[in-house]
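Holo prediction. Input below; ligand is L-rhamnitol.
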Amino acid sequence: MPSTVRKRAARVTRAPGAFPLAALQYADWGVDVESALKTLAHQAISVHCWQGDDVGGFESAGVDIGGGLAVTGSYPGKARTPDELRLDLDTAYALIPGRHRLNLHAFYGEFGGRRVDRDAIAPEHFKEWIAWAKERGIGLDFNPTCFAHPRAADGMTLAHPERSTRRFWIEHCRRSREIGASMGKALGTPCITNIWIPDGFKDTPADRRGPRERLAESLDEVFQKKLLANHNLDAVEGKLFGIGAESCTVGSHEFYLGYAITRRKLLCLDAGHYHPTESMADKISSVLQFLPSVLLHVSRGVRWDSDHVVTLNDDLLAIAREVIANGYLDRVHLGLDYFDASINRIAAWVLGTRNLQRALLTALLEPPGILEAEHAGDRTRRLVLQEESRGLPFGIVWDEFCQRHGVPVGDRWLERVKHYETSVLAHRR
Ligand code: RNT
Ligand code: ZN
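Structure of the complex:
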């Protein structure tokens, strides 16, 4: 498209007076736009650091990622050092309205060129990250890295048949919790330390009981030490299958649901970790009957992959709606989990985070008449309102939100990413 046409189009969407009119239209449907914008402004999303370098980490051990995870694509310019990753993150955060958290994995520690194995990591390896987060006033979340390591090469970690291998990963997870607690303490906001392990079977196992008993036992050892809840919160994440673990995943959904309920842990629900016709959104109000809070890994499954960039699709809208409509914002911790190496990685961060915010805003702007119709037993009206309200001027409200928070409106943030690509990323070779 010629640039003059593009510029004119951009100006039209920002026509002065559009927002007050949109707010009036929402008011007519019983929706208070200002209160929705206020709620959204306070909603921090935990941005996953691993989109920035294809889940690479900084150990420089040159081990394959493994664990049933796969990152495809070779888009140039990925972050190779902690400083590069932080610069990329700063660039992304500047294009996302509001203030957000950062979710780190253990192998993003800064080891000063020394080989520090996973069972030897400590808070000192994360002091730069903590300082960086403190300076920006953002919270940190954490994850032990139980993959991309020779001791996980056979696809087993906490459920491993050998005691010595289990011990190694138990120690890694214990230390991860301590690191999480040190982050939470330093930053004044609890760190969620989420445990996901790859353990599973490519082909039909003869024994499903043994590995699950070992996993429960290992986890109990990991969690033995009590940590203050305002420093660290523990979460456990199940999964359906991964590449090379097609036949059985030790840490399945049922396994962790039971574990989280009996041990009072947070359950992490990852949107890409269920059967394709199953909806993660529908699980939220079920598990919250029995658990105080959950962590969400907002992701997008596409066929065999559970980690595509989050788009504003029905699944995402449903997740956000369940959180908002049920009044769960204070019990649901929102995080992202995807990795795409085939497009600009900063754009992937910005787009996915903004999409989750857009889904939340859509939910916050839901006309109350829908619920009222249901309560009145009028299912016809509920369906009509659900469908007709899709035509409300959502985009104008979102643009206003972006503008108020000083970030680019519409697709204009992409120009900034492209500029960063030519001025910074292109020099990383
Ligand atoms: C893997 C899990 C897990 C990872 C990250 C890197 O299937 O979703 O959350 O994606 O820890
Ligand atoms: Zn996940």
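Residues 199 and 205 are 12 Å apart (CA to CA). That is the main takeaway for now.
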